[in-house]
Amino acid sequence: MKNTRSVRILSIVMSFFIVIGVIAFNKETVSAATDATTGLIYTISSGKATINGFTAPAGFSGSLVIPTTLGSATVTAISSDAFRGKSNLTSITIPSGVIGLSESYFDGSVSLAAINVDSANANYKSTDGVLYNKDGTTLICCPVGKTGTFSIPSGVTTIGFYAFELCTSLSSITIPGSVTSIENSTFDGCTSLTSISVDAANATYKSVDGILYTKDGTTLICCPAGKSGSVTIPSGVTTIGFSGFSSCSELTNITIPSGVTSIDNYAFYSCSNLSSIAIPSSVTNIGDYAFYSCFVLSNAYFYGNAPTMGAEVFYDCASGFTVRYLKDKTGYTNPWYGYPTATFYTASVSYRTHVQDVGWQEYVSDGAVSGTSAQSKRLEAINIKLDLQGITGGIEYRTHVQDIGWQDWVANDALSGTSGQSKRLEAIQIRLTGEAATLYDVYYRVHAQNVGWMGWAKNGESSGTAGYSYRLEAIEVKLVAKGGAAPGETAWSFINKYEPVDAVLYKTHVQDVGWQGYVANGATSGTSGESKRLEGIQIKLNNIAGGIEYRTHVQDYGWMDWASNDAMSGTSGQSKRLEAIQIRLTGAAADTYDIYYCVHAENTGWLDWAKNGQSAGTAGFGYRLEAIQIVLVAKGGPAPGMTARAFVQG
Fold this sequence. Notes:
By secondary structure, this protein is mainly beta. The protein is built from three helices and 61 strands.
């Protein structure tokens, strides 16, 4: 009885304090109430109203205007869950007193196409239904119901966290030159987004093929989730950023180039159609959940020693997922970070050609020359085969034959071309199949009549000529680890008389030789090892709007006046050496391309690359220029080589 009585007394005392507490609390807070007109659920504390939820009233049109006051209290706050998932909202207007908004306040409001803000609000504003901070420097939230294309206005410097998250109806976004900061996960879940463009004047970011990069091209920031098919990350990229390929559910193949060192957290999260990936030897770090929820990813091929791995890198990948690493690489175990492992081996490609008046030559391999040089003999047929160890796959190829055109594809050492018909090969396409195509790129280049060695083509691209009746005279074929650097220049790998290609063409006047023929896109004009000076140069653009200007520094004269569009710069018949050169683009060409050029100078050899009007060569030494290479690069793209020492002055 004593214990029971004590409990009852304690209960009475506790009840007393609870009542006192409720009374005290109610002096500051009114219990949750619902505004019958708007359907807004709110509480009041210290004379200020906070919106906590929303239930659409009968006959609701979809447009919600939040009043300035509720229950005679000024509306100053909106809880983060108040409008989350409200699919019946099409627009919302924020009153002047509200402070403290973020993108997450509108998560799941799939029909919300406009967020409007009272013009008297001191902290926020709205432009075309998009939420910004008051001075317009930060884009906070694009409502998920926005459709079509969207251009970020000038003056915005920061795009906030998740600002475009789940904007599933946007197809393209353009970023103007003022943006200097784009937060992580800004474009997550934008499943219809196929292109992110960047104003060329932006100093922090750029876009290549609709993918967002840092200006220097070293970090891939975001591949839009609506991209489909295959993506080849360009050389020069060293980091695949946080969520860089997140939710790209339509990509089936992604090529990571040699040079990438870091794959950040969630980089390939939910790439649900990616079945395999090749990790180049340059990668040293892979972040947390990098390939999380890549449901059909069954193999990851590692070319280098074991990198540092984050947590659950391959979590929720395909059943039977296996890490495969190149034989003789170190740091792997079985299992490795909980994943089964297996080794694979390098592959080799061998090929032979049937040559006019010679017949079948012996097989050569891995970049060696098959055919003839300086004998004017046509290739008439070719066999190509792979030597594979521990991997599967094959090689397919077809040739363009005189009077016949493109033949059907053949595979794995079958003959392509003709036998006993004296018909020249004019072009070729080569591609890998199966596991070999996952692990390797196949590169090939040809020596064509009247052209010489052309650039390297790869993976089914055309190599050679069309419409000129030029014979192929030699070929080189080489396998490169997936995403690895090309064996050499890739420009000018195929010339079609009826389909002009963007090109820079140039020719030089050489001591004791005279004018050489035009070469293009990075090929060498001049001589090597012959101690012959360049005396003049002509440069022109092919199939490109705009123009090109250039001037040379000439022995005894100094810098000449600017010449343009195939006019000669230098001298003729005066035996005077060129010592340096400047080249620049004009008009539309300058907006589309950077022009790079490097020279071979007496006593210095090949110097580094100059660009866009910079000097290349020497001054004050009396050294002659002996050769030059010129190449076009997409505006803001990586240089074709080193740039530190393009010009040397005595």
